[in-house]
Amino acid sequence: MARTPSNMLPLGTKAPNFALLDTVSGTTLNLNNLKGDTGTVIMFICNHCPFVIHVNEELVGLANLYLKKGIKCIAISSNDVVNYPQDSPEKMKIHAKNEGYPFPYLYDESQSIAKAYDAACTPDFYVFDSNLELTYRGQLDDSRPGNSIPVTGKDLRHALNCLIDHAENDTIQKPSIGCGIKWKKA
């Protein structure tokens, strides 16, 4: 299992807009309609990555908890489905339902959105404030498959609590580690 670190997009970056297929509803959704009143978490994930599978339960719990606090989560898969058919939109829909995702699971077929966010791995997390300016990017927590550290969502939860409390997040933002996004061959 490859261990690819996320790129650290500069804080304050404005969230690139998008309109992508929501694999569950079958409709096209855009960032402006999906964003939260307090903040928005955009996460790049996929169905088969062991790093994402390892944190799926926490993603669901975190999304449900913070939705009540004005934070909305949006999941995007940008993997090449020709070479990784387990990440196809049809299988994304099944996966989202099986996992009980309380957030849209969008398909970035062109991979242009992953490139716009400078996403590198799954999972990769970005937190934007109510003005869609980046306040956090990096890991969920220190847990990884096989390292025996419990999944708590500590880093992402801290960033979200700082956003809600209008407090400065002065903790070190560590890159996420996961499987590299499966880029299409040119």
Walk me through what this model shows.
This protein has about 190 residues and is α+β, with helices and mostly antiparallel strands. The protein contains 5 helices and 10 strands; from the N terminus they run E-E-E-H-E-H-E-H-E-H-E-E-E-H-E. It has helices at about 30-35, 50-65, 90-100, 110-115, 155-165; strands at about 5, 20, 30, 40-45, 70-75, 105, 120, 125-130, 135-140, 175-180. The strands form 2 sheets. It has a 7-stranded mixed beta sheet with strand order 3-2-6-5-4-8-9. The protein has a 3-stranded antiparallel beta sheet with strand order 1-10-7. Helix 2 (about 50-65) links the parallel strand 4 and strand 5. The mean pLDDT is about 95.
CATH superfamily: Glutaredoxin
CATH fold assignment: Glutaredoxin
What is the C-level CATH assignment?
Alpha Beta
- Strand tally is 10
Fraction in beta strands: 15-25%
Poorly predicted residue ranges: none
First and last CA, distance: 23 Å
Strand arrangement in the largest pleated sheet: 3-2-6-5-4-8-9
Order of helices and strands: EEEHEHEHEHEEEHE
Number of helices: 5
General shape: globular
Helix content: 25-40%
Q: What number is the mean pLDDT? A: 95
Broad structural category: alpha+beta
At CATH level 2, the architecture is: 3-Layer(aba) Sandwich
Q: Tell me about the biggest sheet? A: 7 strands, mixed
Radius of gyration: 15 Å
Q: In total, how many domains does the architecture comprise?
A: 1
